[in-house]
Write a structure and sequence with these properties.
- This is Ribbon-helix-helix domain-containing protein.
- The protein is of the alpha+beta class and 74 residues long.
- The chain has one domain.
- Helix content is 51%, strand content 19%.
- The chain contains three helices and two strands.
- A two-stranded antiparallel sheet has the order 1-2.
- Helix 1 packs across helix 2 and helix 1 crosses helix 3.
- The protein starts with a strand and ends in a 5-residue tail after the last helix.
- The relative contact order is 0.17.
Length: 74
């Protein structure tokens, strides 16, 4: 895996930053595009579904993994 890449965004009115591997960012970018969402809106939807015990970075990685595991995803 490559080095981590940090991105900053606003969630619920608060600035935050998340560091993930570029491969995960690529899948998340594709997810946002396929759903016609802004990247921030995609992250907000994932954030809204996670439990407080799960870090945001972990929730984003799992969302990307689940997207790639879907049978209809290239």
């Amino acid at each position: 895996m490559s080095d981590l890449v940090k991105r900053s965004l606003s969630l619920s009115g608060h600035r935050t930053s998340v560091a993930l591997e570029p491969e995960f960012w690529a899948v998340l970018d594709q997810m946002a595009e396929q759903r016609s969402l802004s990247f921030a809106a995609l992250v907000a939807s994932i954030d809204a579904k996670r439990t407080p015990e799960r870090p945001l970075a972990s929730a984003l990685r799992v969302a990307a993994l689940m997207e790639r595991r879907r049978p209809d995803t290239p």
